[in-house]
Amino acid sequence: MYWPDVLYCREVDAMTEKCDTCIVGAGIAGLNALFVASRYLSRDQRVILVDRRSRAGGMWVDTYDYVRLHQPHPFFTAGNIEWTLGKAQEHLATKNEVLDHLQHCLEVIKRRIRVTELFGCEFENAEEVGGMVRINCISGEGREIEIEADRLIKAYGQGVETNAPLELSSTRARSVSPDYFDVRGPEMQASDAPVWIVGGGKTGMDTAHTLITGQPGREVNLVAGPGTFFTSRDRLFPSGASRWYKGELTSSAFTGMARRFDGTNEAEAMDWFRENYGVWLTPETGNFLGAYLSEAENDTIAAGLNEVVMGYLADVVDHDGAAEVILRSGATMPFEPGSWVINCTGSLIRGENPYEPYTSASGRILSIQNRSVTIPFPSGGNAAYFLTHLLFLGKLTQVPLYAVDAEDLRRKAPQLVMVAAFGSLQLYNLSLIAEAVPGGQFNKIVSQNGLDFDRWFPLPRRLRASVRFILTHKRDREHHRRSLDTVAERFGFRGGPVVGAGRV
Ligand SMILES: Cc1cc2nc3c(=O)[nH]c(=O)nc-3n(C[C@H](O)[C@H](O)[C@H](O)COP(=O)(O)OP(=O)(O)OC[C@H]3O[C@@H](n4cnc5c(N)ncnc54)[C@H](O)[C@@H]3O)c2cc1C
User: From the CA of 307, how far away is ligand 1's center (Å)?
Assistant: First the structure.
């Protein structure tokens, strides 16, 4: 049967098709897996790319319209595919710019190998039979599609879903979600009622900055939970010639944190990171998820906010002809009728998904998702990039990477533990990969990784960091392993080295 390159599931009857590699997920993780696959497969070999969304881009397809990429745009790509935007490197790409680039990545990869795109298709399950993987998908219309592949990469990555508006008791509150309501739109412009942003993370900062700069003088309040600190873009991406002597390479910043972290002292390790590389506007900062903010953005938001409330919003209720905000602590605050409540409570590592290891026992199925995280920064793309190399090199089951069940850890431990542990996890696993892949090949893999933030800095600074890594990573690895084991023991979460489907 002839398959055109782009196949929407509604056009497909029940069928069985064969390919060399099937990739589920066309976000930054899936596109990095596809990039790497294209380095090992020949022109006549075929990849089938499956995604339940209608196009490539993953969460960027339906996240809020005013989102901006928080790192300089060249550092969000598949492999080493360059942007064609023609803007300064510092430019923070818009949602449409990101989507255009991810589509461009797909087009560039398609020049090297045959890719059949199966959008609008849900991956259902897979089993290994007779040395191949049999994959079952279902179209939006309920038609069954069976794929037989030599290998399967489930690149669900972060698996981010959209947020609904908060359900509030008050009939006087206008509760909206940024994913379905553009705060720059006419309805918001026509109203001068106060705004309550709920959530002090990246979405909260994007929303506050958009409102404060777009509608100066508007009353904007922030309900900030435990408070959040961000990585200072000025420190990790200093601009112009100052990148020769100022700021710090991301790998060095994470190494500093991971060396300080011993599995018990997350507050100390995070304080060190915050003091050296952080930026924040709340009096306390119990949260950190690795998002970036500049000092200037932080100052603009801090100066433009009417009130910052520490704590969690429980509800907005009507009584005696008025309305009030109720916090989880029981504290209350007056709420002007008609005010907006914007749900910016965050969407990372939220779902409840079944556990699976990152590799099957045979090494034919690679799975990048939150239940067995190996290389967390800067996104699922980095794990997809390195682990797909291991898959094609036949080393996926040979290298006992440490995997952390981030869903479990997030439920059991404060966020700071997770991020502190993620620093150790990243360095531990990269150290194992560096040892398992011959030097020249490892250097080539690293040099083609466009997600590596260190590439912001001039070569001599990067070389110094590489030499430091080569000299110290094995010694540091034992420390990182002890830290991770201590966290696993403290919180009783699933974590440890995985070999095939088993554990060591
Ligand atoms: C609001 C917000 C802003 C962010 N901003 C940044 C930023 O500026 N920089 C940054 O580096 N990171 C950012 N992140 C983190 C971000 O989530 C990742 O960078 C990245 O885009 C996630 O890509 P992914 O491929 O890991 O996951 P996703 O983008 O979620 O892609 C996974 C894909 O898999 C598909 N899929 C999953 N299961 C199935 C199935 N069973 N069948 C078919 N298809 C399936 C999904 O439809 C989806 O398209 C942000 C996150 C959020 C929530």
Answer: 32
The whole-model pTM stands at 0.94
Q: Which two tokens stand for residue 282?
A: 């709340």
What is the CATH architecture assignment of 6-161+349-503? Answer: 3-Layer(bba) Sandwich (3.50)
What ligand 1 atom has the least distance to the C-alpha of 70? 8
Q: Of 298, 307, 253, which Cα lies nearest the Cα of 456?
A: 253
CB 322 within 8 A of CB 333: no
CATH of 174-229+280-343, one of 3.50.50.60, 3.40.50.620, 3.40.190.10, 3.40.50.2300: 3.50.50.60
Determine which residue's CA is closest to atom 35 belonging to ligand 1: 25
- Residue whose CB lies within 8 A of the most ligand 1 atoms, among 66, 95, 158, for a mutation test: 158
Which has the closest alpha carbon to 403: 435, 429, 423, 378? 429
First to last CA, the chain: 45
Q: Are 199 and 350 in contact (CB under 8 A)?
A: no
Top pLDDT among 481 and 500 is at: 481
In the sheet that holds 322-327, the strands lie side by side as 313-319, 322-327, 332-335
Q: What is the pLDDT of residue 140?
A: 83
